[in-house]
């Protein structure tokens, strides 16, 4: 087998491996989010709400988290890139159902 054929086979192998790993990661993350949605409350953002005000309202129900940790958890679990939220947006919060 010449070197060009080996390089081509190696490249295809890496692409196949990448696709398989991506699919496995996708299903793992999807199942984790679905499990979390059954465990934690989901709220609807009202006009004038901020992540900090939501933390102030609900943090008393989860005193294991500081307000800053509460906000970080909400950003992380809801895939927020910034603290910007909009009315009628659904957010999962770290409060048991």
TrEMBL record:
It comes from Sporolactobacillus kofuensis. This is LysM peptidoglycan-binding domain-containing protein. CDD domains: LysM. Residues 41-93 form the LysM domain. The keyword Amino-acid biosynthesis does not apply. InterPro entries: LysM, LysM_dom_sf. The chain crosses the membrane at residues 12-29. Keywords: Membrane, Transmembrane, Transmembrane helix. The keyword Membrane applies.
